[in-house]
Amino acid sequence: MNVMGIAQFERFFRTAAxxxxxxxxxxxxxxxxxxxxxxxxxxxxxxxxANIRDIxxxxxxxxxxxxxxxxxxxxxxxxxxxxxxxxxxxxxxxPLDLGYSEETEARLPQIAGGLSFxxxxxFKILHPTLKNPRPEHWQQGFRIxxxxx
Length: 149
Prior knowledge:
Layout: H1 3-17, H2 23-50, E1 55-56, H3 65-81, H4 84-90, E2 99-100, H5 102-126, H6 135-148
Parallel strand pairs: 1-2
């Protein structure tokens, strides 16, 4: 990730949840986003297969009400921070048994943004005065998302 991209992620976490993150945090963040997207895509693939389709459609992705709200909140922040182009580059598209529709491909960075917003806010729910997340905070957040997604 280039220096400009790092600065945008730092700004995002400051704006979304008053958190200061560093390069190590951004590595953890990248792993988190791609792991959770993979989980969502596995469920979407099962839905597509159950509906006897050979491509994953956008509506196959299991986006809950809470995740939808986080996507909308991310989109509002993104108008200022312009993080979507960077997410477009870092979001992995794992090879699955089924392919992705164009709409699904286009939606993945927005879902990654919603997951990002949800993670940042989760830190603040768990630790309201937190400023600099440590590895144990990241692990705690990951465990919560593993239970939910």
